[in-house]
Design brief:
Chain lengths: 211, 436
């Protein structure tokens, strides 16, 4: 065999070391990024928790004319942003990531609290906010992506619509009770104006149900 | 970690290792193997132009050979018209005389035309130039220096695309440039396994010693390269010897070309199975196995992506019909909620690194082969990255389909009837005849 064809072990080892270095650098960068993103989400949740508490307290304090003081928009935007970031994260983390599941549970608990408050404001102040609780599943639900798209579509042109998304698979007290009270056991399902609807609903039908 | 992620990371590591290995090899051997000065005594070279129905290009091909910066008395040009039915012979005949000789013969395929000319050649070295290709004036003089080493039986050029106007040639421009880099690296590793039809120069000794081209082979250039390798001789590459070839512009034409190449590759590699393994070093352990790995990878990725795409398309259509196909608000929402740092994943990191390495290879190919005139190379590279693996998969799926159950095919003057099904039929018929 000529020299060129000969297997140069030293060269192979150098290349293997260099490739492994790049390979593990990729993993380290990505896991560091995930960690900082998780911490960003956690901070956002704490901030929202404080906002919800502050809003409720404000409402209770303004005994005479509570409706004048209520500004839901800022909090709605924060909840929306957190929800989007969580859905981006969902693609990246493994299914059994306990830290991420806790973030999702916390987010869902905040959503339930905010949903209840929005409903209260709606009843007591006659606000034109529309609160939709949407239950999806990331597994075995062909219509969930379509339903999500319909809700995004309606929400984009109508800032009064507030969508609260819940992963049906999450298992914790507040969400389980919420599901039980409204008879939710499959996805996609929605609670609109205190009524439960199951199955894909297109944009036209959904608009009619809301108003 | 799921099966999907594991497969991705294994593939990413193998691709990373191979790319790094090729770049390291190039860097490590750069100073010793980039240029060879022509020998003090310029050798006589015969260039053969086999032509079958090439009336459009034959004149330009001969003209380009006549413009070679090589002593006329040391250059012999033999044009062989392989039974064309158009005006190829009449056009070529106009150049007959001086150091150009023109012959015509009954159609028998490229291999037979080359063997016909080799017998008549007077050069110590014999080169072939397909009748749809053109040489740079310095190509030959930049190649002959490599033959100072008596173990070198062939020298390959830097093969590039001549026509760059439509989408398919644009993709091939980048594919061929990547080939320019890889062929040089393979030469550095003693692992060239294809000596392209356009302007590979051979030492005539090899033909005398081990026979001429295999006339029944549909890719005689792969066969001769593997034969040289199996006899433990070397094949070199001159990165500064540029040769330009007309690339197919239509999808069917290109598909047909690739089916021929890939069927020829499979058959010839199977005929030279002994090249696999440690006995033939990097060629047997890395280069040939990687050629098959890249096919398996591309075809596997193609099927996987097609299934995902079909499912996604079904969901998209269902989702879009639920909003009466009014997509503008959705696009608006997508950009409003776009968080770049949340999209980044380790998969993206590896893809960016691999993309970066391929850009370095392309840059080296352009710089070291003095490539010019590619104004829109970035666009070509974008189209190449997006479409090439899909085309590559389709070509291979078609070739594998023919290999398994294809009927007889005809390429030029050579018939191919080597599918597994045909072989089974032939074996059965043989058995029945022997039983009778």
């Amino acid at each position: 065999m000529d020299d060129k064809k000969a297997i140069n072990k030293k060269k192979l080892i150098i290349v293997a070391v260099l490739s492994s270095f790049i390979f593990f650098t990729g993993f380290i960068i990505s896991s560091e990024l995930s960690r900082s993103q998780m911490s960003e989400l956690s901070n956002m949740e704490e901030e929202i928790k404080l906002d919800v508490l502050s809003l409720e307290t404000e409402y209770e304090l303004a005994l005479d004319q509570p409706c004048q003081f209520i500004q839901l928009e800022t909090l709605n935007k924060k909840l929306d942003e957190l929800g989007t970031k969580l859905s981006f994260m969902e693609f990246k983390v493994s299914e059994d990531d306990a830290e991420f599941e806790n973030l999702k549970k916390y987010y869902s608990a905040l959503e339930i609290k905010h949903w209840l408050f929005t409903r209260k404001v709606q009843e007591e102040c006659g606000s034109d906010m529309i609160a939709i609780a949407y239950f999806y599943s990331s597994k075995d639900c062909a219509d969930c992506a379509s339903q999500g798209r319909v809700l995004t579509y309606l929400k984009t042109d109508n800032p009064n619509i507030m969508v609260y998304s819940f992963d049906l698979a999450l298992d914790f007290g507040a969400l389980n009770t919420f599901k039980k009270v409204y008879g939710i056991n499959s996805a996609p399902s929605m609670i609109i104006n205190d009524k439960t609807y199951t199955g894909l609903i297109n944009s036209e039908d959904l608009s009619e149900l809301m108003y | 970690m799921g099966v999907q992620s594991t497969l991705f990371y294994v593939t990413a590591y193998i691709s990373l290792f191979t790319s790094m290995f090729f770049l390291y090899t190039f860097w490590d051997n750069y100073s010793s193997s980039m240029k060879r000065a022509p020998p003090a005594k310029i050798p006589k070279v015969t260039v053969v132009v086999p032509a079958f129905n090439e009336q459009e290009c034959i004149a330009a091909t001969i003209e380009s050979l006549l413009k070679l910066n090589y002593p006329k008395e040391k250059l012999e040009i033999i044009v062989v018209d392989d039974g064309s039915t158009d005006k190829t012979y009449e056009i070529a005949k106009k150049y007959d005389g001086g150091n150009v000789r023109v012959f015509t013969k009954k159609n028998g395929g490229k291999g037979s035309a080359l063997n016909f000319a080799i017998k008549k050649s007077k050069g110590e070295f014999v080169g072939a130039l397909d009748a749809d290709s053109f040489v740079h004036p310095d190509a030959l003089i930049n190649m002959v220096g490599y033959f100072e080493d008596p173990n070198i039986m062939a020298v390959t050029p830097a093969l590039k695309v001549y026509n760059k106007n439509s989408i398919l040639p644009k993709i091939q421009v980048v594919e061929y440039l990547m080939g320019v880099f890889l062929r040089k690296v393979f030469a550095m590793l003693g692992s060239i396994h294809v000596t392209p039809g356009p302007f590979t120069i051979y030492r005539k000794f090899f033909f005398k010693q081990y026979g001429g081209y295999d006339e029944k082979n549909i890719t005689e250039d792969i066969e001769i390269a593997l034969r040289i390798q199996s006899k433990n001789y070397q094949i070199e590459n001159a990165m500064d010897a540029c040769v330009y070839t007309m690339s197919p512009t239509g999808f069917r034409e290109l598909l047909w070309q690739r089916v021929r190449w890939y069927l020829g590759f499979i058959d010839n590699v199977l005929n030279h199975k002994n090249l696999f393994g440690f006995k033939h070093g990097i060629l047997g352990v890395l280069v040939l196995p990687m050629a098959f790995f890249s096919v398996a990878l591309a075809v596997g990725a193609f099927f996987f992506t097609s299934v995902l795409f079909a499912i996604n398309l079904r969901d998209q259509i269902s989702g879009l019909s639920a909003i009466n196909y009014d997509v503008i608000p959705l696009i608006k929402a997508y950009f409003e909620h776009f968080h770049l740092n949340f999209i980044f994943t380790s998969n993206m990191f590896f893809l960016i690194v691999l993309l970066g390495l391929s850009v370095v290879m392309l840059y080296l190919a352009i710089k070291k082969s003095f490539e010019t005139g590619n104004k829109h190379l970035i666009i070509s590279y974008g189209i190449y990255m997006f479409l090439y693996w899909i085309l590559f998969s389709i070509w291979w799926i078609a070739a594998l389909g023919y290999k398994v159950c294809g009927k007889q095919l005809k390429f030029g003057g050579v018939a191919w009837d080597n599918s597994l099904l045909s072989k089974c039929r032939r074996n059965n018929n043989g058995r029945q005849e022997s039983n009778q």
